[in-house]
Amino acid sequence: MKKCLENTRTEILQDIINWVNDTHPDARRILWLHGQAGRGKSAIAHTIASWFKDVGGLGSCFCFARDRQAERREEKMLTTISHDLAGRYPAFRRALGRVLAEDLSLKTTSDLLQQWQKLILEPLFKASGSIVGNVVVVIDALDESGEVLSRKHILSLLTSKEAANMPPNFRILLTSRALPDI
């Protein structure tokens, strides 16, 4: 796993940890870490994921990779995150189970908006009172998810009104190069 070397990037890591742990109800839900290729964004993201995994606040860590674009990873992102959240939070798992009992096709649909609303947001809101502490989901290397069109749907979800109104203890750390579409 990519990680920052010990005692490096301490300021940015501490800033991100403080953001994840911010308990103010109006705290930003999404943080975009961007920069040129090779600047350490993934190392920072994986260090944060590892740190929050150790303290119990990692919801999921999903990584895009240019060499895996053929797998249509953007279509697997939300099901993977939902699966990870269900594995870590029993209340989320129960809420997700109720959603899937009504519509099992949600696991395989390519409709990212429907997956976002039904596999992430709905169970998250139903479980939010039972999830103690702040939860971070890391989405690494969005720029490697494929072409502009494949990112368009993910970006529209992350910039939607629903995303801005996620439960106050839920955070998404997103990394990418600063491409024009992102």
Task: Show the helix and strand layout.
Blueprint: H1 10-21, E1 30-34, H2 41-55, E2 58-63, H3 73-88, H4 90-102, H5 112-127, E3 135-140, H6 148-158, H7 161-164, E4 170-176
Parallel strand pairs: 1-4, 2-3, 3-4
Mean pLDDT: 90
* SSE string: HEHEHHHEHHE
Helicity, as a percent range: 40-55%
Strands in their spatial order, largest beta sheet:
1-4-3-2
Report the span from N to C terminus: 25 Å
Rg result = 16 Å
Count of individual domains: 1
Q: Which parts are unreliable, with pLDDT below 50 for 5 consecutive residues or more?
A: none
Q: Which structural category fits the helices and strands?
A: alpha/beta
For this structure, the quaternary state is single chain
Strands, count? 4
The CATH topology: Rossmann fold
At the first level of CATH, what is the class? Alpha Beta
Shape summary: globular
Biggest pleated-sheet summary: 4 strands, parallel
| Fraction of residues in β-strands | 5-15%
**CATH architecture label:** 3-Layer(aba) Sandwich
Number of helices: 7
Protein name: Nephrocystin 3-like N-terminal domain-containing protein
Keywords: Repeat
Domain Nephrocystin 3-like N-terminal: 12-177
Pfam families: NPHP3_N
Question: Would you kindly provide a written description of the structure presented here, covering whatever features stand out?
Answer:
- The protein has a four-stranded parallel beta sheet, with helices on both faces.
- The protein is globular, with a radius of gyration of 16 Å.
- The protein has one domain (10-21, 28-177): Rossmann fold (3-Layer(aba) Sandwich).
- It has helices at residues 10-21, 41-55, 73-88, 90-102, 112-127, 148-158, 161-164, and strands spanning 30-34, 58-63, 135-140, 170-176.
- The model has no long low-confidence stretch (mean pLDDT 90).
- It has 182 residues and is α/β, with parallel strands linked by helices.
- It holds the Pfam family NPHP3_N.
- Keywords: Repeat.
- This is Nephrocystin 3-like N-terminal domain-containing protein.
- Residues 12-177 form the Nephrocystin 3-like N-terminal domain.
